[in-house]
Specification:
heterodimer; A: 631 residues; alpha/beta; Rossmann fold; 2 domains; 6-stranded mixed β-sheet; 4-stranded antiparallel β-sheet; 11% strand; B: 291 residues; mainly alpha; two-stranded antiparallel ribbon; 11 helices; 2 strands; 73% helix
Chain lengths: 631, 291
């Protein structure tokens, strides 16, 4: 598998290099240039859309900003081509980071609208600021000169090809590094990402800035290729086209971006040729029919419900292509249908389809004999008079407790007594109204979750918060994020140190998985693990932070008897490494067996504290759980 | 002073249009946490259908037909685009799907009614009424104001007084609990989409005589209405009216004192500012996320 993909990439590279000799027609070379330029945009957008899962409807604006920045620098200031390209990328990145800063607290539909608004503003400004941009008239840009000779289409093709190769290598290295993992993690669970010591805001901004920079670079390449920039190129429709390219080609895939770029460039060309379009529609219909028949054969007529719509859509396109004369008039409808098809039936794009047909490569590193990298510096966690109110409800009322290094501290109480609120206060998810939390003498309350996490407090969640689309191994490696010092540039240059670091992280993560008994599941996606194993994976991931204190929020909830026993064994092992734990749990036998000290909360107040025996005999605890006997 | 007042008056009617479209966003957002990114196209389709119908059966008889058309269009969007996407739990599936249905609608409108903007005949006299010392108000502007307010009031009343309305409110409050009480929450979401598009379609009919009618007339209206929904808060009825008026007036001033080209900028800047500072909107309630 490994070999085969390498051969395919090599073939692609040879084909791309030989293209000007095989097809020496400027029209086709020009199309190939545009494919390359769009591919750069899509590779960048994939980091944002595919990995962090943020929808951008405004990337045409970054493309435009890059085009104008590069074009103006070259024409008005005579800046050399290479420098102008770099500057264009930087300018676009700055805009990207600014937009991300404005939109940090929003995601999903809000973000989509914000980017749409941004795109609209940029288009208006380009049109209106005619003292700078020449407004609707547009701006003429010359191709750069080499030894006094203007670059021809073929030479420029090689320039673009060089950039595509460069961007391909860079984005691939970024996406497979700890940056890529942080991006993916924040898509699946921002809150868990924060609690792994990763600043969600920072990484969202990085993803935005990177994708904007690449769109800017592509924009200025485009300006030079067309030798003309006009404001009505950078419209909402173009943004939509980019998004279609990412989704249609396949998210989280470099090959998908190349494929997507080819599709979106060729599509309008295709629509010019009705005959070709009919053939393609016929092929797509045949494909859909094949899948339809296959599903009905294996699953019976029930399957028809899910496989019929794509067949209807493709067949509809086929009929449609015979009905109309000028397909370009109906370009938008065809885009729309393709988007629907891609969203509902090709969620992983064309690449996803090839992958399911061809089988998916799966490589789990062998279990190395590394010792589990748990041991952390022991720290005392003291909580003093913490009060937390939600409106009129006081969830915690002046609660104090102290967690000794290396001990297991139980936190119990009836439902609604404030246990989970305490967890959230300790990890910075909530800021308490009063009181202080100190870790080894340093006050931490009011800090951001990622800051607190990196000081040595790790947690699990009452409702499991894993990074679902990532393998168990990758989930743990997100926890190891703090160990990676390499920056984007070092990664792009392929520093040996970062590769070495990556394989060390594999070994460490495997050791942690082995510790919780999940070594065999390293290559399984988190969402495919059974529930009990998901809970164990959360513990392994939290341990990757090398915490001094591990907070466990009902780790045994919903587990079966044998699973609980396995969990107790794991927690005993963790304790032997010197990690202190705060354990919220309703399984009293587990609490009694494990905890050195138990604190009981009721209605936000501490009602009892002591060792298991003392707490069990405390009449206040009994009455909190069972009520008082009628007098 | 005179000019300031005049600008405010034009701003108010425009602002009410934004408010009523934003109200449509709220309807679907509260029931399903999704909204129709093709709202602008729903508006344009409503106006165009209204234009064709009004030459057949007259302006006033056309209004209920457009209402029905809007209901059907919205229900279709929900069935084709939103429901399957909600099932697959994909974060941006419904965004892309509603956009896609929107552009298909726009393309179809262009094929049927052409790409050029059309003139929508005004049902009321087109001579301004003069108030006081030369304050000019178009009768159509008053109709817009009254119509928009009436629509919002009617839907509020229906949701408070009728059983179906209460079922929609229950779905908005807690979908799972509503479903356990025997409410078909899926139908309630479809209904909210239908109402949302119907409101947009009628807004299109109302605004069309003041602007031009065409397949792309709704794009910037819908975007600015979204800004209004965010500024006011996606769960506050009062918020959209205040937000709509704010934006409508701000735009008139920008257009008059700066340039018509910059007319769309203040709304979008307000949107960005509100999202950066107070994402729940000026009137929205903050919801504490439980972990």
């Amino acid at each position: 598998m490994f070999q085969r993909t390498h051969i395919l990439w090599a073939l692609l590279a040879v084909g791309a290099l030989a293209l000007p000799f095989a097809v020496p027609i400027p029209y086709y070379l020009h199309l190939a240039i545009i494919v390359g330029i769009y591919a750069i945009v899509l590779l960048g957008m994939d980091l944002l859309v595919g990995y962090t899962g943020q929808v951008s409807l405004g990337h045409a604006a970054f493309f435009g900003i890059g085009a104008y920045a590069g074009g103006l620098l070259m024409t008005k200031l005579g800046v050399p081509f290479g420098v102008a390209l770099l500057a264009a990328a930087v300018v676009a990145a700055v805009f990207g980071a600014l937009l991300a800063a404005a939109a940090l607290r929003v995601s999903g539909p809000y973000l989509a609208m914000v980017t749409l608004a941004f795109g609209t503003i940029v288009q208006i400004l380009i049109n209106e600021m005619d003292w700078l941009t020449m407004g609707p008239i547009g701006l003429a840009v010359d191709k750069p000169r080499l030894f006094g000779e203007k670059l021809g289409t073929t030479q420029y093709y090689y320039v673009v090809l060089g950039f595509v190769a460069l961007v391909l290598v860079c984005t691939n290295r970024w996406a497979t590094s700890h940056f890529g993992r942080a991006f993916e993690a924040l898509r699946d669970s921002p809150i868990a990402t924060e609690c792994m010591g990763i600043s969600v805001a920072r990484y969202k901004a990085i993803a935005f800035a990177l994708s904007a920079a690449l769109a800017g670079l592509a924009g200025s390449l485009y300006a030079v290729s067309e030798e003309y920039i006009s404001p009505n190129t950078y419209t909402f429709e173009l943004s939509l086209l980019f998004l279609l390219g990412v989704i249609f080609g396949g998210r989280k895939s470099r090959a998908g971006s190349l494929l997507g770029a080819t599709v979106i460039v060729m599509l309008p060309t295709l629509l010019d040729s009705t005959v070709l379009f009919r053939w393609l529609a016929a092929c797509a219909t045949a494909g859909a029919l094949y899948f339809c028949v296959r599903s009905v054969r294996s699953d019976g007529l029930v399957a028809l419900r899910s496989v019929l719509p794509p067949l209807l859509i493709t067949a509809g396109l086929l009929v449609f292509s015979f009905q109309v004369q000028n397909l370009n008039e109906h370009r938008l409808s065809i885009f729309g249908l393709l988007i629907l098809l891609a969203v509902f039936y090709l969620p992983d794009g064309l690449m996803g389809m090839f992958r399911t047909v061809g089988g998916r490569p799966m490589a789990a590193p062998a279990l190395a004999s590394t010792a589990a990298p748990v041991g952390a510096t022991p720290k005392v966690l003291s909580i003093l008079d913490i009060t937390m109110r939600f409106g009129g409800l006081t969830a915690l009322n002046a609660v104090s407790l102290e967690v000794q290094p290396g001990s297991i501290h139980g936190l119990i109480g009836p439902n609604g007594s404030g246990k989970s609120t305490m967890m959230n206060v300790l990890t910075g998810v909530y800021t308490p109204n009063a009181g202080s939390v100190t870790l080894a003498g340093r006050q931490i309350q009011g800090g951001r979750p990622h800051g607190i996490a990196s000081q040595g407090i790790a947690r699990t969640f009452q409702n499991v918060q894993l990074f679902w689309e990532m393998t168990a191994l990758q989930n743990v490696k997100v926890g190891l994020h703090h160990d990676f010092g390499t920056n984007l540039l070092a990664l792009a240059l392929g520093a040996r140190a970062s590769r070495v670091r990556e394989s060390q992280a594999d070994a460490q993560a495997m050791a942690l998985l082995a510790l919780v008994g999940l070594a065999d599941e390293a290559g399984t996606d988190a969402r495919d693990l059974p529930y009990g194993k998901q809970r164990l994976l959360e513990i392994a991931r939290a341990l990757a932070l090398k915490p001094s204190i591990l907070l466990l929020d009902e780790p045994a909830a919903g587990l079966t008897g044998p699973d609980v026993a396995a969990l107790v064994q794991v927690l005993r092992k963790v304790k032997d490494f010197g990690v202190a734990m705060v354990l919220i749990e309703h399984h009293m036998d587990m609490v009694m067996a494990l905890c050195d000290v138990v604190t009981v909360l009721d209605f936000g107040q501490k009602i009892s504290e002591g060792n298991a025996q003392q707490v069990r005999d405390d009449p206040r605890v009994v009455s909190a759980y069972l009520g008082t006997a009628a007098a | 002073m005179q000019i300031v007042l005049q600008l405010c008056i034009s701003g108010v009617s425009l602002g009410m249009i934004y408010a009523v479209i934003a109200f449509g966003y709220q309807l679907t957002y509260v029931t399903s946490k999704t909204l129709n990114f093709g709202q602008g196209e729903a508006l344009a389709l409503g106006a165009l259908v209204g234009l064709s119908l009004s030459s057949w059966i007259g302006y006033w008889a056309m209004l209920p037909m457009v209402l029905l058309f809007g209901l059907a269009q919205g229900a279709l969007v929900e069935r084709l685009g939103v429901r399957p996407a909600l099932k697959t739990r994909s974060e941006f599936g419904w965004i892309m799907a509603t956009i896609a249905i929107g552009i298909i609608g726009k393309n179809m409108a262009e094929t049927i009614w052409g790409k050029d903007d059309l003139k929508f005949p005004s049902p009321l006299p087109e001579t301004p009424i003069i108030f006081g010392d030369g304050l000019r108000v178009m009768p159509m502007e008053i109709l817009v104001l009254v119509g928009a307010l009436a629509m919002m009031l009617l839907i509020e009343l229906l949701s408070r007084r009728t059983l179906v309305g209460k079922a929609v409110v229950a779905t908005a409050d807690d979908r799972e609990a509503a479903s356990l009480m025997g409410i078909n929450t899926g139908s309630m979401i479809t209904l909210s989409y239908g109402l949302s598009s119907a409101v947009a379609a009628l807004a299109g009919v109302l605004v069309a005589p003041l602007t031009l009618t065409g397949a792309s007339m709704g794009v910037s209206l819908a975007l600015k209405a979204f800004a209004v929904a965010i500024i006011g808060g996606l769960n506050s009825g009062m918020g959209v009216i205040v937000g709509g008026l704010l934006l409508g007036i701000a735009e008139q001033f920008t257009a008059f004192y700066l340039s018509t080209g910059y007319k769309d900028v203040p709304g979008l800047l307000m949107l960005l500012a509100v999202l950066a500072i107070r994402p729940t909107g000026l009137f929205g309630k903050t919801v504490i996320k439980k972990v």
